[in-house]
């Protein structure tokens, strides 16, 4: 764990922190910690990058992200494939 020192804090803010801490039955240090967690989030709340990527919808082709001179021609899928399926039945 790391330490945080806040210097030159306005007297009203220090008083408000003590008041909120008493209201919640916590020490001012604990109240300060809870405020920071509420605003910034907790490391345990953070999603992993892998989870975030996995939650994204699968749309488009990876080749669309390449510069135009590195792209392979895209295969057409559509009416031709459907026509073949109808003929084969």
Report on the architecture of this protein.
This protein is 47% helix and 0% strand. The protein is an all-alpha fold. It has a domain at 8-32. α1 (11-23) packs across α2.
From the structure provided, what is the oligomeric state, counting identical versus distinct chains? single chain
Instruction: Supply the helix-strand structural class.
Output: mainly alpha
Number of helices: 4
Portion of residues within helices: 40-55%
| SSE ordering | HHHH
Major sheet: none
- Uncertain runs: none
**How many E strands?**
0
Shape: rod-shaped
Residue-averaged pLDDT, rounded? 78
- In percent terms, what proportion of residues is strand? under 5%
Radius of gyration: 28 Å
Report how far the terminal alpha carbons are from each other.
Answer: 69 Å
Task: For the structure shown, list the relevant keywords.
mainly alpha, 89 residues, 47% helix
Summarize the structure.
It contains 4 helices and no strands. It has 89 residues and is mainly α. It has a domain at 8-32.
List the helices and strands and how they pair.
Elements: H1 11-23, H2 28-40, H3 49-54, H4 79-88
């Amino acid at each position: 764990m790391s330490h945080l020192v806040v210097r030159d804090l306005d007297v009203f803010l220090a008083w408000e922190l003590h008041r909120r801490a008493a209201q919640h039955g916590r020490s001012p240090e604990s109240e300060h910690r809870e405020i920071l967690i509420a605003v910034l989030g907790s490391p345990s709340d953070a999603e992993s990058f892998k989870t975030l990527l996995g939650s994204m919808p699968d749309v488009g082709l990876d080749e669309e992200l390449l510069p135009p001179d590195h792209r392979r021609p895209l295969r057409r899928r559509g009416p031709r494939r459907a026509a073949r399926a109808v003929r084969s039945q």
